[in-house]
Design brief:
Layout (H helix, E strand, L loop, with lengths): L2 H13 L7 H22 L6 H8 L2
């Protein structure tokens, strides 16, 4: 994703927040979106786990 597109996604995410949003809430939203992007990039790179593997790792 190019820098302009990334900047626009950030602006769009902030623009969707209510007018009375706090700085902390805005930061939380941006951190959440960053984690989603990082996860999607990992999946694109083949670094994801299938459902059965996740279940196996979570079992005690």
């Amino acid at each position: 994703m190019g820098l302009r597109a990334r900047k626009q996604r950030i602006l769009d995410a902030l623009g969707d927040l209510p007018d009375d949003v706090t700085v902390e809430e805005a930061i939380e939203r941006l951190c959440f979106l960053a984690k989603i992007e990082r996860g999607l990039a990992q999946l694109d790179a083949g670094q994801g786990l299938d459902h059965d593997e996740v279940k196996r790792r979570l079992q005690p």
